[in-house]
Design brief:
The chain is α+β, with helices and mostly antiparallel strands. Helices cover 46% and strands 17% of the residues.
């Protein structure tokens, strides 16, 4: 499977979808990625759950809740990595006397304002800036730079605040539900299923029957929840989101900035340290219109089986078992083979 994840990473990194790209073009660009993911998606994926009223209700109603990364137990999850020095140097170079003089002379000799300025500031505002630059004297530039030097500390303090906001933005804006390729992980039963007192739900994402797929309204519904499932990329290097932070910075400074890759949200959430490789994780991404500020999103997918933790209480097991029987899904009991010399969880059909 690691070879398949490497291939997935290779395909994913080639996909870049600008904010301005038309929907049909987006579909065509995403098609090779989606097709490959479909070809490698396991027929069985598992979701570890603790026993509580919310989880019982979600199981009963076939709901899978996706939350943002701020609720995860790993501070690195979805946290952007970016080149702060590059951003600082870009600002400093762009505001230097030499850079503005060169641009002024270029414009006064019949040159055109760089297209980037038009995309950042908009056509009308860019023309105003061009006129100001063309009529700026060397003395004006020196006075402006001097004023900038006086206020530079406050300016870059404000930049730092914006960069911090950008760091948090992706974590707040991405809704994720986590799954694993294995139901036998002792560590995951300990971490995510209340020390083996919880349960695990099995799902078939190869033959997914989702309510949003069978609804007649399809993409015309404002409440439609869009979903994609992808494997985690285990890598020693974090995903570099400098371009996204640059976009966020421009937007925060009042520029007409456009995102050059709307896949930033997904990509930043798919990179994890190899220390977590034992989880064999897949992530279900949920999205819908106007979801910013929500604490979670959910989708209805019926599980195909349930597994009871080795130390699950009798009362919790009865609650879950009654729901499972009503749904007509398979039930399994996890157990430890005391005669085996291996540290391996086993399960048997009930």
């Amino acid at each position: 499977m690691e070879t398949k994840r490497s291939k997935f990473k290779e395909i994913l990194e080639k996909v870049s979808i600008p904010e301005t790209m038309l929907q049909e073009e987006r579909k065509a660009l995403l098609s090779p990625l989606i097709e490959y993911v479909n070809s490698i998606t396991p027929s069985r994926l598992f979701r570890y759950r603790p026993c509580n009223e919310m989880q019982f209700d979600a199981f009963y109603n076939n709901k899978i809740y996706a939350v943002n990364a701020q609720m995860f137990n790993v501070p690195y999850d979805c946290l952007t990595q970016y080149d702060k020095n590059y951003l600082y140097n870009s600002i400093k170079q762009g505001s230097s006397i030499e850079a503005i003089k060169q641009l002024r002379d270029h414009l006064n000799n019949g040159g055109h304002l760089p297209e980037l300025w038009k995309s950042l500031y908009g056509e009308k505002r860019a023309k105003m800036i061009k006129d100001i630059i063309c009529n700026t004297t060397d003395g004006d530039l020196e006075r402006q730079v001097l004023a900038f030097e006086v206020n530079k500390k406050d300016f870059f303090n404000n930049i730092d605040k914006i960069l911090k906001q950008a760091e948090d933005y992706l974590r707040r804006s991405t809704f994720i539900a986590c799954f694993s390729e294995t139901v036998k992980s002792i560590t995951m039963w300990s971490h995510y299923a209340d020390s083996h007192k919880g349960f695990v739900l099995e799902y078939d994402f190869k033959n997914l029957n989702c309510q949003c797929d069978i609804c007649d309204k399809k993409s015309t519904c404002n409440d439609r929840v869009f979903y994609n499932i992808y494997p985690i990329i285990y890598d020693n290097r974090r995903y570099n989101a400098t371009s996204f932070v640059e976009y966020y910075l421009g937007l925060s400074l009042g520029l007409n900035a456009k995102m050059n890759d709307t896949m930033y949200y997904t990509k930043a959430a798919l990179y994890k340290s190899p220390q977590w490789q034992y989880e064999k994780e897949w992530r279900l991404f949920l999205n819908k219109n106007n979801s910013i500020g929500l604490s979670s999103l959910n989708i209805q997918i019926k599980p195909i089986a349930v597994y009871y933790g080795n130390d699950m209480s009798a009362i919790n097991k009865k609650i879950i078992s009654d729901i499972a029987k009503e749904k007509g899904i398979k039930e399994y009991q996890m157990y430890i083979d005391t005669q085996s010399d291996r540290y391996a969880m086993k399960y048997r059909r009930i």
